[in-house]
Design brief:
The chain is α+β, with helices and mostly antiparallel strands. The protein folds into 2 domains: 160 residues, 2-Layer Sandwich (D-amino Acid Aminotransferase, Chain A, domain 1); 166 residues, D-amino Acid Aminotransferase, subunit A, domain 2 (D-amino Acid Aminotransferase, Chain A, domain 2, Alpha-Beta Barrel). Helix content is 24%, strand content 29%. It is built from 7 helices and 19 strands. The strands form 2 sheets. Strands 1, 2, 3, 4, 5, 6, 7, 8, 9 and 19 form a 10-stranded mixed beta sheet that branches. Strands 10, 11, 12, 13, 14, 15, 16, 17 and 18 form a 9-stranded mixed beta sheet that branches. A hairpin with a 5-residue loop joins strand 6 and strand 7. Helix 5 crosses helix 7. It is globular. Bound molecules: pyridoxal-5'-phosphate (PLP). Pyridoxal-5'-phosphate binds next to helix 5.
């Protein structure tokens, strides 16, 4: 692993925006904390890491990422712990995933330990930006992009890595109407579905917009070859409760390996819930609806934790699901996860990085 061995330089803002920010009334992703972590890659190594005031970047119009999309990102959260201090949820898992995304996008691996130190310092410095309240958190956005000023198609020689944070309030959780997509694809074998790379999201906007025009909130993506197996729901992983078994598609290159997904699988097994990680056929889900055994269907991801589905549409038909209050597994697992993150319970898997 590459490390610079250089100490983190911290340049504090002399004009905090915190006092003029109404943390009770913020829109997701529009309000940014005072500082950001920045580090540049050049000449085959990462340069000195630093924390500086959050601010604009100046880029050449020829900056490589703007043309060919060589960029990756992550998303994780920090929570006020009810035991005092702050918990950052599974940051090592996000940084490990980012290294996997980097490899797929032909970018240098990130120095995970160094970045983890920077992330911890950044959250510590801006911890007052975490809104109070049982559903609030600090969303953390690490990302990396190609910075060569060059418009030839090749991997960049230089990169910038940044982390900034956003205070976020409770995610408004309306149960979602979803449509199983049978024409467009998000991912295919050998593609980039498992990488958190910018292009995946750009390519999903148009099919999602078409579905929204038909009144759906989100698409359920199916495999790119046959549209026969269920893969993900929007930008979340997906779970079904069929009878008393929790079922989620196995990853394997086309599905993003969600950390919420992974945590839910661990918690469900610990709770003694029968949990199957395997291919899930669209037909199986439709049959379960018809047979009355599909009791719950939900998305899982960092932003919302769990997104209950209210109905699933397929091939012109739309099938109703039980009311979200009746999703006993989803609600219990979301509660267990939240209790761990907010320090209300023990942390049996050692998931929190705790800042006293
Ligand atoms: C980020 C993401 C997820 C969820 O991952 P988490 O680590 O749980 O936030 C699922 N699917 C896609 C496509 C994603 O980009």
């Amino acid at each position: 692993m590459l490390t610079t061995g250089q100490k983190l330089a911290i340049q504090r803002t002399d004009r905090s925006r915190l006092s003029e920010t109404d943390l009770e009334n913020i829109k997701f992703g529009r309000v940014f904390s005072d500082h950001m972590f920045v580090m540049d890659y050049a000449n085959g190594e990462w340069g000195a890491p630093g924390i500086v005031p959050f601010g604009d970047l100046e880029l050449s119009p020829a900056t490589l990422v703007l043309h060919y999309g060589q960029t990756i990102f992550e998303g994780l959260k920090a929570y006020r712990s009810e035991k005092g201090g702050v918990n950052i949820f599974r940051p090592q898992a996000n940084l490990a995933r980012m290294t996997r995304s980097a490899e797929r996008m032909c970018m240098p691996p990130i120095p995970e330990e160094l970045v983890l130190d920077g992330l911890r310092e950044l959250v510590d410095l801006d911890r007052d930006w975490i809104p109070k309240g049982g559903e609030a958190s600090l969303y953390i956005r690490p990302f990396m992009f190609a910075t060569d000023e060059y418009i030839g198609v090749r991997p960049s020689d230089t990169y910038r890595f940044i982390i900034f944070t956003c205070p976020v309030q409770a995610y408004y959780k309306e149960a979602v109407r979803v449509k199983i997509e049978t024409y467009y694809s998000r991912a295919f074998p050998g593609g980039t579905g498992a990488a958190k790379c910018g292009g995946n999201y750009a390519a999903a906007l148009y099919p999602a917009k078409l579905a929204q025009q038909d009144g759906f909130h989100q698409l359920v993506w199916t495999d790119g070859l046959e549209h026969r197996y269920i893969e993900e729901s929007g930008t979340m992983n997906v779970f079904f409760r069929i009878g008393d078994t929790l079922v989620t598609p196995e990853t394997g290159g086309t599905i993003l390996e969600g950390i919420t997904r992974d945590s839910i699988i661990d918690l469900a097994r610990r709770e003694g819930i029968a949990t199957e990680v395997r291919k899930v056929e669209v037909r199986e889900v439709l049959d379960a609806i018809a047979g009355g055994t599909l009791k719950e269907a939900f998305g899982a991801g960092t932003a919302a934790t769990i997104a209950h589905m209210s109905s699933i549409a397929y091939d012109g038909g739309e099938y109703q699901l039980p009311a979200p209050e009746q999703f006993a597994f989803a609600n219990r697992l979301a509660q267990l996860l939240d209790d761990i993150r907010r320090g209300r319970s023990e942390d049996p898997f050692g998931w929190n990085l705790h800042l006293p």
